[in-house]
Design goal:
71 residues, mainly alpha, 2 helices, 90% helix, elongated
Length: 71
């Protein structure tokens, strides 16, 4: 719903800001394209792990809620 939209928008806006800032640093000669690519790939791997963690925690709380209804 709305929460998912704003979360996705915020994530994409942050990635866009990082790419813009990285482009500025590249134009100044401070970092290379390889450094930018490596950072973005590491960041996406880290984000994916946090998403999985959030899904697992959400399922755990659903399980607790269902267990309360049974008991």
């Amino acid at each position: 719903g709305v929460f998912t939209f704003f979360t996705s928008f915020a994530l994409n806006a942050c990635i866009g800001g990082i790419i813009y800032y990285a482009a500025v640093l590249h134009n100044e000669g401070k970092i290379s394209i390889g450094d930018i690519t490596a950072f973005l790939l590491y960041m996406l791997q880290l984000i994916a792990n946090f998403v999985i963690l959030a899904l697992v925690l959400g399922n755990i709380f659903k399980m607790f809620g269902a267990a309360e209804k049974i008991i």
